[in-house]
Amino acid sequence: MYDLPSINNPKQKISPIFQNKIFQILVIAIVFFAVVFYCIEFLQTGYLHNQVDFFVKGVGSRFLQPQELPIAPSIILEPETKYISNISYEQAVIDSVASASPSVVSIMISKNVPVYEQQFVDPFGDIPGFESPFELQIQQKVQKGTKYQEIGAGSGFIVSEDGLVLTNKHVVSDKTADYTVLTNDGKKYPAKVSALDPVQDLAIIKIQVDKLPVPAGQNPADVPVVRFPSIKIGNSDGIQIGQGVIAIGNALGQFSNTVSVGVVSGLGRTVSASGSKGFSETLEGIIQTDAAINLGNSGGPLVNLKGEVIGVNTAMADGAQSIGFAIPINIAKKDIEQIIKTNKIVYPFLGVRYISIDEKVKEKYGLSVDQGAFILKGDDGEPAIIKGSAAEKAGLKEKDVVLELNGEKITKSISMQQIITRYDPQDRITLKILRNNQELDMEVVLGER
After folding, report:
1. What is the pLDDT of residue 281?
2. 135 in helix, strand or coil?
3. 15 tagged catalytic
4. Which end of the chain is more exposed for a tag (fewer CB within 10 A), N or C?
5. Which of 96, 298, 356, 415 is an active site residue?
6. What is the residue range of 45's domain?
7. Strand pairing of 138-158 and 104-121?
8. Around Cβ 246, how many Cβ atoms within 10 Å?
């Protein structure tokens, strides 16, 4: 057991020096002034900061020198590999929207629609002298004429100064409807469908400036020619996943020139798109983006941060969030060129029905290859080779496998249809086919779809 010191303990003795009163007072004074001095210095502005700064610099000079850090050489970036932006992201978005928006239009769809009203009809009214009690009469809708009204809306963008507008086919597919273009500056123009793409969900309409009323008292020849701001067209072949993009369009058919921002989420997608009135198409080589695409955005541009259109917004994934799709602009370029030159859109036509080969198709049909286009008739009796087509003239047969087209391999990601669309009617191509496990080269002159 420890014996704690105590004044009351007669066994302990106090040193004579501490019994001196003067010495005790002196010690107390020294301690008191030391505490007061320290407190004054501590409260001086910047003292604590200076002390910490001094401490950190001192430690850094000894322990945090860059050459002494244990960094693995593999993660040190060379100056030329670092991405350096010359413009802020926010400013790039603002500039791109300002550049593209004047060319973006809303497309209003109008037509005569039936007007119905509820009526009670006597099912026995045709029997002479017999009238059913009211409670036996049937309530049904009866048409009472028609009413001209707006039935839908979409988006588009101007691709030429004379008023050509690129949009989706499903936006302007109703042949009985009228179309009106609402420009970014609030002006309305009648428009006419120039052509529908037979393969892609694309269409071109033309603003009818010649249908505008001539101001009273003015000679039609003196009316100045209307010029429209044409959008800058980019190159969709060079885009990358993660690249920033902007979708612009008439969201929900109510909010024209709505802007949404995102990135390219995927490339080369194949999707089955469907819409109203039984519209359905399989789209290949499609851009996926998380920029919000809503009803009414169809046909609007997908723009890069340079203000160049790189895609045509066409679909959104049902039941998902932030999954939208756009047709690459390079696919649409050919349509634009053909309309300007010939006022119609034409596609090359081979004339075969086929399925793309994968592991399941290979196993099911006992094929020796796992890629290519397997020519096969449909379950509904649709022929494998269309009569009178380029394929029939060239000698293609059912159960042939097309391996290559002009030296380009047909794979799971690049279908035969995608390759053929790069050509024009009357182009001469060479097919490499597999028939009875033997490879053959066959020349074909493409027809017109």
Report:
1. 73
2. helix
3. no
4. N
5. 298
6. 17-55
7. antiparallel
8. 23
Q: Which helix (H) or strand (E) holds 356?
A: strand 354-356
* pLDDT at residue number 53: 46
338 and 352 both lie in a single domain: no
Output the domain CATH number for residue 271: 2.40.10.10
Active-site residue (options: 101, 155, 170, 236): 170
- Say whether 30 sits in a helix, a strand or coil: helix
Whichever domain contains 361, its CATH number is 2.30.42.10
User: Are residue 166 and residue 128 in the same domain, yes or no?
Assistant: yes
Catalytic residue among 197, 201, 335, 400: 201
Helix (H) or strand (E) holding 203: strand 203-207
Alpha-carbon span 158 to 152, nearest angstrom: 20
Cα 443–Cα 447–Cα 448 angle in degrees, nearest 5: 155
> Total domain count for the chain?
4
* Contacts of residue 39, Cβ cutoff 8 Å, sequence gap at least 6: none
Residue 344 phi, psi dihedral angles, 5° rounding? -155, 160
Rounded distance between C-alpha atoms, residue 144 and residue 116, angstroms: 5
Asked if 160 is an active-site residue, the reply is no
Verify that 191 and 272 share a domain, yes or no. Answer: no
Residues in the chain with pLDDT values less than 50: 1-14, 17-18, 42-83, 85
pLDDT, tens digit, 9 for 90 and up, residues 177-206: 999 999 998 899 999 999 999 888 999 999
Does residue 323 lie within any of the structural domains? yes
Active-site residue, 298 included: yes
Tokens of 185: 């500056």
